[in-house]
Write a structure and sequence with these properties.
The protein folds into 2 domains: 312 residues, ABC transporter transmembrane region fold (Up-down Bundle), CATH 1.20.1560.10; 213 residues, Rossmann fold (3-Layer(aba) Sandwich). 65% of the residues lie in helices and 10% in strands. It contains 18 helices and 10 strands. The structure holds adenosine-5'-triphosphate (ATP). It comes from Streptosporangium carneum.
């Protein structure tokens, strides 16, 4: 099987920032401005304590002028700090939201362009969770926690530098009492956090997958009475989510131990500071500065630890999102043009959806220009798979498919779509009107072209009978009507080859006639390959290609 990169349930958290940088680079100017504003805000916050110290000194010395100056500066600094905090937060939020928007666009692009095998290998809901849930988490973090994170980190660094300037022995004692145990606790937290938060994100994605599947298989579940068994499975997924969440709470609680260390460090600061002051080695004002700044220090570290839980959640989400962005890379597009008409040839094609099960083995078949043929065989023999490979939707694992002598893998996807139209048994419509769906044809045709296509296929009566014409909601159409629209969409692209998986769903006689009329017109001057289920269709085809358990069945060669 062609290698498909699979998403990991708990992707690596290594070098996350470096891996995310390409998505941040376009907004680096604003991010830098936000960083500078944040640094300025932190500097203003840290400067409050020394200013209060100055005021205390002036008060003790009875110096009224100095006291007034210190108070005026304090007032100015408080206002400046508040303004800077506001600007920093809003600039960072805008920059962060732009980064998140870019990530969202890339994720949507990836899902739209990812190799079909990649999409098939994963549950739709879990991919959706990565592309939406993880991004929503990231957006929330950017808006609410990131400004705080930057501010607190800078405040901590500035506070330590400032305190060293006042009294390095007292600073060292405080740092020595506080920092080692606080760091040990943080490490203890971080060690458990990666796996705990990663497992929780994985469990949530599994549950999202089950949720999405519930909607996909709703009719089958009700028809076979499978709801109780399905709900049991959902309950299991739900319980797994709860269990992993409990683990994250336990890990988060580890960080609470820092408050004990905070208390001990403050006590040491007071006792040692008072002793130094009593010895005359420190002024009372300096002790006041230490007590005020010490609070900044401890609270800042406490805030950082609180944020650590959110950081871990967002790291797990970011890792899963980056995993999606790197794993779901589209197959490289070819560059060669395809001739307007030509022979379609499969040579020794082998294909597996999953490892070890060969669905097609050494299939070689030739469809000359304008040939009409039917693909027949028992259910599961590989007809649909061969049609998708002939249509260039999946590359074969070995062998090749050529059109007009050009390997489809080397041709541009756009050219392949224009030359070979594939109409599946069940044509899915996107939400919107008939016109919205026809507009998906190559070249984005307008309404005039759509009407001309109905006429060319001889089914203007079909178009006229649609309740709201081209504005009829596509959801309201039957399987047969959707397949007719598939043919109309095909004629809009004017393909050289038409591959039709004949609808097996019950089609009313009027729709069946319209379908036959459209097909009869459409086949003129083109290669037509029909996966034929109805004897009436098989009879009309001059050649049959048979498949049996993934190999050509020569009994049908005529
Ligand atoms: N997306 C898929 N992932 C894994 N296996 C698949 C997938 N699609 C088809 N298969 C398997 O490949 C084999 C061939 O399926 P395929 O649909 O090509 O047969 P078919 O002849 O078209 O059958 P039918 O007439 O019922 O549509 C079957 O065993 C099927 O279970």
């Amino acid at each position: 099987m062609a290698e498909v990169l699979l998403l990991s349930d708990e992707p690596s958290h290594e070098r996350l920032l470096r891996r995310a940088w390409p998505y941040m680079r376009p907004h680096s100017g604003r991010l830098l401005a936000a960083l500078l504003l944040s640094l300025a805000e932190s500097a203003a916050l840290v400067a409050l304590a020394p200013l209060i110290g100055l005021a205390v000194e002036a008060l003790v010395a009875g110096d009224r002028d100095r006291l007034l100056t210190a108070v005026a500066l304090l007032a100015a600094l408080v206002v400046a700090q508040a303004l800077l905090a506001r600007f920093a937060a809003s600039t960072l939020a805008v920059a962060g939201e732009n980064v998140v928007r870019g990530l969202r666009e890339r994720a949507a692009e990836r899902l739209a362009e990812a190799p079909l095998r990649f999409l098939e290998a994963h549950r739709g809901g879990s991919l959706l969770q990565r592309a939406t849930g993880e991004i929503a988490e990231l957006a929330m973090f950017v808006r609410e926690a990131l400004p705080n994170l930057l501010g607190v980190t800078a405040t901590l660094a500035f506070t330590i530098v400032m305190l060293l300037g006042y009294s390095w022995p007292l600073t060292l004692v405080v740092v020595a009492v506080f920092l080692p145990p606080a760091l040990l606790i943080t490490r203890w937290f971080a060690r458990g956090a990666g796996p705990a938060f990663g497992a929780h994100a994985g469990a949530e994605a599994t549950m999202a997958g089950t949720f999405a599947e519930t909607l996909d298989v709703r009719e089958e579940l009700r028809a076979v009475g499978g709801l109780p068994a399905w709900m049991e499975r959902f309950d299991r997924d739900n319980l797994a989510t709860l269990t992993t969440q409990r683990r994250t709470v336990l890990v988060e609680n580890r960080i609470g131990a820092i408050t004990l260390v905070e208390g001990a460090a403050m006590a040491v600061l007071l006792v040692f500071g008072a002793w130094l002051a009593a010895e005359g080695r420190l002024s009372v004002a300096t002790v006041v500065v230490f007590v005020l700044a010490g609070r900044n220090l401890f609270e800042g570290f406490g805030d950082l630890s609180q944020l650590a839980g959110e950081i871990q959640t967002v790291r797990a989400g970011l890792a899963r999102l980056l995993d999606l962005l790197s794993a779901g890379a589209p197959e490289p597009d070819g560059v060669l043009p395809l001739p307007a008409r030509g022979e379609l040839l499969a040579q020794d094609v082998t294909f597996r959806y999953e490892r070890d099960t060969e669905v097609l083995r050494g299939v070689s078949v030739r469809f000359s220009e304008e040939a009409h043929a039917g693909l027949v065989g028992e259910t599961g023999s590989g007809k649909t798979t061969l049609s998708k490979i002939l249509g260039g939707l999946y590359p074969p694992d070995s062998g090749r498919v050529t059109f007009g002598g050009v390997d489809l893998r080397e041709a541009s996807r756009e050219e392949v779509r224009r030359r070979i139209a594939l109409i599946p048994q069940e044509v899915h419509m996107v939400s919107g009107s008939v016109a919205d769906n026809l507009a998906l044809a190559p070249g984005e045709p307008g309404r005039d072209e759509m009407e001309a296509a109905f006429e060319a296929l001889g089914i203007t009566a079909f178009a006229a009978a649609l309740p709201q014409g081209l504005d009829t909601p596509a959801d309201d159409l039957s399987a047969g009507e959707r397949q007719i629209l598939g043919l109309v969409r095909a004629v809009l692209a004017d393909p050289a080859v038409l591959i039709l998986d004949e609808a097996t769903a019950d089609i009313d006689p009027v729709t069946a006639r319209d379908l036959e009329t459209a097909l009869a017109r459409l086949r003129e001057g083109r290669t037509l390959i029909v996966i034929a289920h109805r004897p009436a269709t098989i009879e009309l085809l001059p050649r049959l290609v048979g498949l049996r358990a993934g190999v050509l069945d020569t009994r049908h060669e005529n």
